[in-house]
Amino acid sequence: MEQNLNGIIKYNIEPDGCLTGIFSNNDSKINPSQCDIYPEIAKKRSSDNLGNNLVGTYDCFFFGGKPNCKLEIIESENEMVFHFEWSTKKEPEPFHRGIGMRIDEKTIVVAYWHVIAH
User: Fold this and answer.
1) pTM reported for the whole predicted model
2) Domain boundaries, position 23
3) What angle do CA 95, 79, 113 make, to 5 degrees?
4) What Rg, from alpha-carbon coordinates, does the chain have?
5) What is the helix (H) or strand (E) element at residue 8, kind and residue range?
6) CATH number of the domain that 57 lies in?
């Protein structure tokens, strides 16, 4: 597997456990001299862990990329750092992976990269 930094996303953690975010990446640049910004929504699948607990599976909808994907958030060694994986039913292996840091109770910032299988 090769990792190429692809983009960043800033998520707001909503009271119902959903994530609303804005992202920019190398794929979405229409004009290379400017940074295009797009919205993303991630709705948590299970009602068991709503609220501030980020860990879990989400239905993810975003613009400028692959729609209707699955986002899996996995907790790291502490409650500040999390691992992210985006995949689809058609492509069950992640097409993006990322690492995010919770910067306050309501915000997490993620850097992510393409996953390229060899």
Assistant:
1) 0.83
2) 2-116
3) 20
4) 14
5) strand 2-13
6) 2.40.128
Question: What is the count of structural domains for the chain?
Answer: 1
pLDDT tens for the chain, 118 residues: list them: 446 788 999 999 998 889 999 988 876 556 666 677 889 999 988 765 665 678 899 999 877 555 578 999 998 778 889 999 999 888 888 989 999 999 999 999 999 998 866 4
Name the 3-class secondary structure at 109.
strand
Q: CA-based angle 48:54:94, to the nearest 5?
A: 105
Positive or negative torsion for Cα 9, 19, 101, 96: negative
Note whether 8 and 22 are within 8 A (CB): no
Q: What angle do CA 51, 83, 110 make, to 5 degrees?
A: 80
Dihedral sign computed on CA atoms, order 22, 27, 30, 31: positive
